[in-house]
Amino acid sequence: MPNVHVLTSGYAGERVASTVSLIEAEGALLVVDPGMVSSPSVILDPIARLGHRVEDITDVIISHHHPDHTINIALFPNARLHDHWAIYENDIWTSRPAEGFEVANGVTLWETPGHTAQDITTMVDDDDDVVALTHLWWFQSGPSKDPVATDVEALHNGRERVLGRATLIVPGHGEMFVPDQSTPR
Length: 185
Description:
The chain is of the alpha+beta class and 185 residues long. The chain has 3 helices and 14 strands. The longest helix is centred in the last third of the chain and has 12 residues, at 152-163.
């Protein structure tokens, strides 16, 4: 079963960093949202502490195309890149919809527009928990109204969909949390 490790919890304010995660799945090592951080070591050192090398990363998933979630993609030269409409590997572009695409056993992509029209959520089912790695929330507290959302109705619909399945949420710029009644819808 897959395991999710938050390598660094992001933040937003005067400075910005994305939450970056590693998923250990059967036959795959996936990094989600390797974006802006204070130094590449903030991403690379925890990967090494978990016993992995950069060359071992098989896939990178980006929730959307904002630089704060994409700027460190090149740290993983052997990885395939997944976004909302394709897989990119070296000079091969394979178009496919993200919705329902299984990246690895127990790791599936959902289309969840709202923050941008192209947002995706990575759903990880390890039989004990269902973890959603997503930018539907910046932090545990929301914000309830995403200040840069391109489609507020879609954002709220995506939140409801994810809350109907996820037992843990890894937001775009904050610490992993357990959703409850106070989680912005």
